[in-house]
Every structure is written in C-alpha cells, then in structure tokens.
Amino acid sequence: MKYSFSILLLWLFSFSAVAQIIESVGIKAGISYSNQTYYYKTPGFSIKMDYKTGLYLVATAESFRGKHLALSTEAGFVQKGSQDEVELVTPEFPEGSGQFTTAKITSSYLTFCPALKAFFDLKKLSFYVQAGPRLDFRVATQSDFGGELNKKKNKLMAGLNWAAGAEYKVSKLRLLLEFSGRPDFTPQLELAPTENSTGLKVTGKSFLLTTGLRYQLR
Q: How far apart are CA 81 and CA 106, in angstroms?
C-alpha cells in the first residue's frame, strides 16, 4: 500500500503538469505477454505459470520536451494474467484422464504510467528509452480456476514501467514501435499460513509489444 500511495501522488502531480503543457498526444496499441508465479510459503516451493497474451490500448501525452529529455504519460487499458495445462478428471478417472486443456486467468486493468523519456533524434528517426512508476486498477477477472483466490487479489497494483522504442517522423506525425517491461512491486495476492492453509504469495510481470502514433501539437 505504501508503493500505491506514493505512485498515486506521482500520478496526481504528473497529470497536473501534463495538463498544463501538452506538446503532443497519441495512441498506442499492442499485445501484452504476462505470467504469474505462485509461491507457497509452507513447505516452500513455487509454480510458474505459462505466459498468455492480452490486449493493450492507451492514450499518450508528452510535455516539457527538451533537447534530449521529456515527460511522457500514458493512460488506458491492459489485460494481464497467465495460463497452464491442466489434466481433465472424470468420474471414471478421478485422478486424471490423460487428457489436458489450457486453463487461463485474465484480469483487465486501467493503467496509468508517467515516465521520464530520454531520446536521440537522427533526422526523421528518433530512438528513445523511458522509465517510471506504474499504477494499475483491476476492473474485471475471468478465470478457469481459483475463483475464491481471485476475489482476494489486490485491486490496486503498483509497479515499474520501462520501455525502448523508435519513432519515424512524417510531418507532425510520429509513427512508433516499442517494447516494454512491467514488473509488479505489489503482490497480486499474499496470504499468511494458517492451520488450514500453507500460505501463498502471487507475483506477476508482463512485457508489451506495441505500435502507435503521436501528433505534435507545437
């Protein structure tokens, strides 16, 4: 919660700053690749789920652009989760039928990311890296298993957003291609061991491959 409060303050500050001096606006869309790791505290082992894909769509704004630095902000929607192969059970084969299916967990978040952007312009091309805090608010979850655990997961998630990309300038438009990583600071779920439970901590991370455009206002 301390991480979430700190990032909320940064959110409010950066939103106020960007609203006053917006130099360009844009949109990004792409695919997220995310997974989850389940850490069981007793006896002490972990299960790493497989990566699954999701949607990513945000609006962007850039301000305070200098010679090599700028403030970049994005807000929108992202899907994260994981998947795993599970064996089907039937009344005839209660311990496993030998047939498998893919079970998925998909959570939808509203996401907000202010970031410091460093760039290098080369005629029509521009290369950049950026990093900053991230705040995600979960609005929905669809799961093929673990229904009760999903209800206990944190709705507010704090994390890091880092990215590297390239832009191509066409008049006032900039076409971009970007790769980014999003590790979480906040566990998605953390349960202490009890007499009837081993204790569990669920963490997550995701990577994004996106494309988009940015329109220069000034």
A: 5
Q: The tokens 């566990």 sit on which residue?
A: 187
Q: What is the pLDDT of residues 139-196, one digit of tens each?
A: 988 877 666 667 778 889 999 999 999 999 998 899 999 999 999 999 988 888 777 7
Which helix (H) or strand (E) covers residue 40, if one does? strand 24-40
Please, are residues 61 and 216 in contact by the beta-carbon 8 Å criterion? no
CA angle at 66 for the pair 74 and 180, rounded to the nearest 5°: 35
Enumerate domains of the chain plus CATH numbers: 2-216 (2.40.160.20)
Distance, CA of 63 to CA of 163 (rounded, Å): 17
Q: C-alpha distances in angstroms, 206 versus 14, 119, 122, 186?
A: 24, 24, 30, 14
Q: Please tell me whether residue 57 adopts helix, strand or coil conformation.
A: strand
- pTM for the model stands at 0.82
